[in-house]
Amino acid sequence: xxxxxxxxxxxxxxxxxxxxxxxxxxxxxxxxxxxxxxxxxxxxxxxxxxxxxxxxxxxxxxxxxxxxxx
Length: 70
Description:
By secondary structure, the protein is α+β, with helices and mostly antiparallel strands. Helix content is about 30%, strand content about 25%.
């Protein structure tokens, strides 16, 4: 279980990474496999104080066609 959030671009993600680092909050970049699974360009993962995994991403690859249930 995790919660996901999107930032506007890579610069915003880098800024967030720096702020987390400055506050001593551990995070790691998403792996290439994780980025591929989530269809995003970049992202990080960390845990909140209660242990919930959080993912912050940017560059979501949006589907050009809307979803239609069959």
